[in-house]
Amino acid sequence: MNSSKKLFVFLRQPQRIHTARTQIQSPQCLLPRCSRRWSSVSQRPGADHVHFPGAVNSKFTTNLEFQRPSTHPAIPTYRIMDSDGIIVDESRAPKDVKDEDAIQWYKDMLTVSIMDLIMFDAQRQGRLSFYMVSAGEEGIAVGSASALTPEDVVFAQYREAGVFQQRGFTLDEFMSQLFANRNDHGRGRNMPVHYGSRKLNIHTISSPLATQIPQAAGAAYALKMQALQNPNVAPRIVACYFGEGAASEGDFHAALNIAATRSCPVVFVCRNNGYAISTPTLEQYRGDGIASRGVGYGIDTIRVDGNDIFAVREVTKEARRMALEGGGRPVLIEAMSYRVSHHSTSDDSFAYRARVEVEDWKRRDNPITRLRKWMEGKGIWDEEKESEARTTIRRDILKSFAAAEKEKRPPLREMFTDIYEDLSEESLSQMKELKAVLERYPEEYDLAAFEGGKDGL
């Protein structure tokens, strides 16, 4: 097949070889075409390849040669349009994308970008305790989210504001969480940027790095069991987002191995943006990115240009299909991008990278300007629409900002609720003790910002 005609290539794993005369299905694999079975593997006399349980199709050789990374080509990066918004191969043009959809994705990315600038400045003004931006990575979040169904379950990290935006999280919901007011779904218990939405099937973001990855593998296994028990319910997948820095954590390796051995319907989306906090990728690993690890764990894997929203969407769409195929299996997507801003408001990235490098990336390529160039070339966007969209989005963000900042914080009682179904004796005792302290030293505590004040207990 001519390589120019290929859709895109996932690095697939060889099929397992089964030699047992009787193959008994394991409990977790009752779906048709499931490849996981109890089997025995034996080495046949005169075989020209290894047939041990750990490697069932490795050729014998008399050549003493260690495998070196430099002898293998780097995994290719799939793209549809270049940095100028031009389709590289017209046969791969996004024909199923409606103009109104592309415009909406663009506005979603623009919303996240403008909100990031406003909220970053708000933190510097002391109006927020913390903030993290998604600059340069908006295309990964919005593009991948557009390929999921509303029923799919999402485990995000802290640069997935675009996923929330694309799935319908409102500006009021963003702001309520950031200001930890009484309308916050988390009742003011989490740090800023730790969004979550039961309605949108997005688990609340956690601070500990990579903790969501094994959680996603477990949730995907639960969905697989659900599908077995309820065959009439539409099958769902789990989409799990993380950065390449999180892939240095042990949780990443445990999660991929669990997902592979249990054949879990999960799509892992790694944002490789070049830097963990204070740590460039060259100091994180020596292998071929994160994609090479997926292959090592026996997972179908692909690398994609994260600044190309069409490529990200198409890859995720195919990955979702594959994840549900044959009863379920994991897929790994490594999306390449560049972290334009600091890691967070607690970081000064110019202490470990050159300012000129960042400015060069800002000018050269990012997902927002790339999609804008494509839309302008198609005649569906222009400078007037750009100005109108930016003005409207900024006004709406500032309106929600102002309203959320004025709202009262949740009642003090919320510090103790939702730990158990009912308040424990210990919690009730702590509440009583706190109330006594507040009554004893009223001048030391300003409770006006909390709904109900002292009575909120």
How is this structure best described in words?
- By secondary structure, the chain is of the alpha/beta class.
- The chain has 2 domains: 77-405, 3-Layer(aba) Sandwich (Rossmann fold), CATH 3.40.50.970; 412-456, no CATH class.
- The chain has helices spanning 99-124, 138-145, 161-167, 171-178, 212-229, 250-261, 291-296, 309-324, 355-364, 367-378, 383-406, 425-440; strands spanning 24-25, 37-38, 49-52, 55-59, 77-78, 153-155, 202-203, 238-243, 266-272, 275-276, 279-280, 300-305, 331-336.
- α8 links the parallel β12 and β13 (331-336).
- Belongs to the BCKDHA family.
- One of its GO terms (molecular function) is branched-chain 2-oxo acid dehydrogenase activity.
- One of its GO terms (biological process) is branched-chain amino acid catabolic process.
- It is found in: Mitochondrion matrix.
